[in-house]
UniProtKB/TrEMBL annotation:
Descriptive protein name: Hydrogenase maturation protease
GO biological process: one example: protein processing
NCBIfam families the record matches: hydrog_prot
SUPFAM superfamilies: HybD-like (SSF53163)
Family: Belongs to the peptidase A31 family.
GO MF annotations in UniProt: aspartic-type endopeptidase activity; enzyme activator activity
Keywords: Aspartyl protease, Hydrolase, Protease
Pfam families cross-referenced by the UniProt entry: HycI
Amino acid sequence: MRRLLLAGIGNIFRGDDAFGCEVARVLAGRPQAEGVYVKDFGTRGFDLACALLEGYDGAVLLDATSRGRPPGTLYVIEPGPVEEAVAVDPHALTPDHVLRLVASFGGRPPWLRVIGCEPAWLGDEDEGAMGLSEPVQAAVEEAARMAEELAREFLGPAIDDRPGTVT
């Protein structure tokens, strides 16, 4: 049985950076196919790196991702191979750094996709911010649907094809 991790990433105290956490919350409230696991890692990049070493065959990372488009724009990113394993600060791990940390542990990232959302605001450094902006909140349901579609793609024909369901 193949195992797929749907991993929320973000900081709930930094406005739209909580996007991945919110998508993971939505997905966790829905039935998932056998072999699909949903977990909100928040800011715990080291824990995510360890999880990627625990025998998952694939992962979908859910995260706020700035790429210069309008807020709420969703991206599906297929990261390239990790070229180097380097020491990284385990307290400041972006998805890119998590993948390099996995490589430094001698692991190889599994099948991997990132569903990213263009943030509108992350709050300021000193005060932070609670809650998602309107355009990012509006993208959460579509991002959850995209994650379910990627799960179907990854797991193949064993997934129920009814729209909006992963069983």
